[in-house]
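Continuing the batch. This is chain 6 of the set; chains 1 through 5 are on the previous pages. Same settings as before, nothing changed between runs. Recording input and output for traceability.
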Amino acid sequence: MKMTFQKLLIGASMAIGVSYLATVPAQAGTLTSATIGGTAASDYLVYDSNATNTFKVANTSENVQKVLSGNAASPTGNVELAASSEQAGFDFTKNTTLTGTIGGKTLTLSSLTSDDWFGVGQTTTTYGLNNLANTWFNQALSSNSITSPLLTAFGYTQQTLFNSFLTKGGFQRFSDPNISYVNQDDTSGLISIGLAGHFDAAPLLGLPSNQFFPLQASEIVKYTYGGKTDYLYSFKATKSGLLELSDGISHSGNYEVVPPAAVPEPSVMLGLLGVAGVFATQRKFKKASI
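Output for chain 6:
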């Protein structure tokens, strides 16, 4: 009889814990209080969107906040950091940042500088060094199954393609992330960031485009959140359904990147505490029955 009562009580405790986990509303949402900063705080563009195109709008705080409202299923406009990266005279030592609050913490997203790519104090690099430039470039090729025989068919080796990409300003070109949304999952608390880019990035890497097997590579964004700073990028895009109005090419792909998990949402923690209470109850019953 005592064991039956214990089972009933444990079952009731588990039901309460699971119910609490499922019904407590999550404290989540999108990036709020978005501001632009960095050492090149004026070097940015804001793109709004309609059902077909993205297009430039005024660089106001209201527009910055507005265009970050999309998600992976329906990306909207975006904020381009370090927007002059493809222009002559671009200062590769300076950055532009987007900062806001999400999950009760400050999140800063930044364009990249030569220090990020090549190493502190380095203005260029060479093939084969241990730095972000080589790591990202090699991953871009391997993730898209660009092998040495295939490069040979295009008239390149991996090293000569790297050198060509470097001298043509490729790393600057991939340093200006277009942030289309910053969201937080209601259940897990995980943050997802949308990067607007080219659905087929082959021409940006100096390779021929292929509509059947597009080469995909996002721009890189540097983030600081919860005391951690790192880089985020992706080699897998979904079609955004949008094209930039002036060139008819940009913003066709949505690359979603996710920073490593931080502290779980309060609602998740409360649910876990409820489950933990079940196990504590079980241990007490075991001791009582000895």
